[in-house]
Specification:
By secondary structure, the protein is an alpha/beta fold. The chain is 38% helix and 21% strand.
Length: 491
């Protein structure tokens, strides 16, 4: 069991997966390594589940489903609140696990624990809202609808917010009466596996199953399993399209996808420059190395204030403290793994080859005592062409591309000229202009004079290649139900 004070390793801990109420290893005995991206060291080994392990987990979830469905909404809400209590009790330990496994600063991972707790309690509070309706009809007839669970739900979560997604994304499917098989990212599985330990005796056997492994093995087996009729995935658009295609090879499934983004933050000429600079920094999520699908990674600035705003922003970015993720004053930590680190460096090179100019950051940074760590400085490009790769492709790293514009029509055209449509932010003192932009921009979530913040109960999700469905809201809860219509002739 990990120690909350242990910052240099997890010696003696043997993570296991949760299947049918038991904590077990992979049936084949294979393991994956957890690498600390700040040091390059192996900090733990955990089960590499294969298709047969996933089949065991789905079978356990199927066995548990009838009793869990019959438990009733208040009993399900009580259990979800108990899971929230467990996360709250172990929040520091779980946050530290994510620091070691993911590389993001400790204060951000603590916030992830708080968000997870809040969302679990939010969904528990909606338990009595899973309801149907009566529909007026002919005299002598009654027509009503029921909302019923799917059965076994598969959830695949990403590497950027490991504990937050592992915990919070249990809430909606459980409250709706489903059982769950969850697979965390193979790059950041430790906090999900610790959560599995903590709830193994709390949750009825088979109601929650957590399996670790690669996407190609465990993930594929979960996506293709014919008894998993409801799937939810958070990750890249490329993998999301693969999941859609793979899911359809066996049976008809309901699939929701929260995917990538190349999100615009648009600064009009009347904006408060200081507020806009704060928004650009917050919107890029540099405090978890820009590794967020919602990051506003395209900075569209009106020509009249571009020089002033970009200059101030560059100064603020240069002042950010890159450091050891477990240090309290670190602002930007390590990139999650070697592959992602190389990808970001490739895009920095591509941006320069395309003719854009680096005015802050631009490459690796050395951290004393962590020479093998994957540290990159927050990087700001200026003069980026709207059709360039730097402006069109999701990097998922600390790289912000500045694009000038001269009119509302040009700003809107640039904002919408990508295949993604997850978030957008607009800064202006003209609320009519702000509402006009919010109406016209092709995204699922818009901030006005703000960026990055999420609010429980507000539907989060994207247009176009950024996904299907909405999360963190009542829409997410209802998406784990099927509607049945009942027509009664009593005349």
């Amino acid at each position: 069991m990990p120690n909350a004070e242990l910052k240099n390793g997890l010696e003696g801990w043997q993570p296991r997966v949760l299947i049918g109420g038991g904590l077990v290893g992979a049936r084949g005995g294979e393991q994956l390594e957890a690498i600390n991206p700040a040091t390059g060291e192996t900090i733990a080994r955990f089960p590499r589940c294969a298709a047969k392990d996933v089949q065991d987990a789905v079978a356990a979830a199927q066995r548990a489903y009838p009793e869990w469905r019959a438990a009733g909404p208040l009993a399900r809400a009580a259990l979800v609140n108990q899971i929230a209590d467990v996360v709250a009790e172990h929040a520091e330990e779980l946050a530290l696990l994510d620091v070691l496994d993911n590389g993001s600063p400790i204060r951000e991972m603590r916030n992830d624990s708080r968000i997870a707790i809040g969302l679990l309690r939010y969904f528990a509070g909606l338990a009595l809202q899973v309801r149907g309706e009566t529909i007026p009809g002919e005299h002598g007839r009654l027509d009503y609808t029921l909302r019923e669970p799917y059965g076994v739900v598969g959830r695949i979560i990403p590497f950027n917010h490991p504990l937050m997604f592992a915990a919070s994304r249990l809430g909606a499917p459980l409250i709706a009466g489903n059982t769950v098989v969850m697979k965390p990212s193979e790059h950041t599985s430790l906090s999900a596996l610790r959560l599995a330990e903590l709830i193994s005796e709390l949750v009825p056997a088979g109601v929650v199953n957590i399996v670790s492994g690669t996407g190609q093995e465990a993930g594929d087996a979960l996506v293709a399993h014919p008894q998993v009729r409801r799937l939810a995935f958070i990750g890249s658009a490329h993998v999301g399209r693969m999941i859609q295609q793979r899911a359809a090879t066996e049976v008809v499934k309901t699939v929701t996808l929260e995917l990538g983004g190349k999100n615009p933050i648009v600064i009009f000429e009347d904006a408060d420059v200081d507020a806009a600079v704060d928004g650009a920094l917050r919107g890029m999520n540099f405090t978890w190395q820009g590794q967020s699908c919602g990051s506003t990674s395209r900075l569209l600035v009106h020509e009249s204030c571009r020089e002033q705003l970009v200059g101030r922003l560059a100064e603020r970015m240069e002042a950010m403290r890159s450091g050891v993720p477990s240090d309290e004053d670190t602002e930007t930590g390590a990139i999650v793994n070697e592959g992602q680190y190389r990808k970001v460096l490739d895009y920095i090179r591509i941006g320069q080859e395309e003719g854009s100019r680096i005015i802050a950051g631009g490459g690796p940074v050395a951290i004393d005592g962590h020479e093998d760590g994957l540290f990159l400085r927050p990087t700001l490009f200026d003069g980026v062409a709207p059709d360039s790769r730097l402006a069109q492709e999701e990097i998922f790293g600390p790289v912000l591309a500045t694009i000038p514009f001269s009119s509302y029509e040009q700003a809107l055209a640039i904002a919408n000229n990508v295949s993604y449509g997850l978030t957008a932010s607009v800064f202006t003192r003209d609320l009519a202009l702000a509402h006009r932009f919010a109406r016209d921009v092709e995204v699922g979530y818009v901030w006005v004079n703000d960026a990055s913040r999420h609010f429980p109960g507000t539907p989060y999700g994207g247009y176009k290649d950024s996904g299907i469905g909405r999360e963190e809201s009542q829409e997410e809860l209802l998406s784990y139900t099927q509607v049945k219509n009942v027509n009664v002739n009593f005349g």
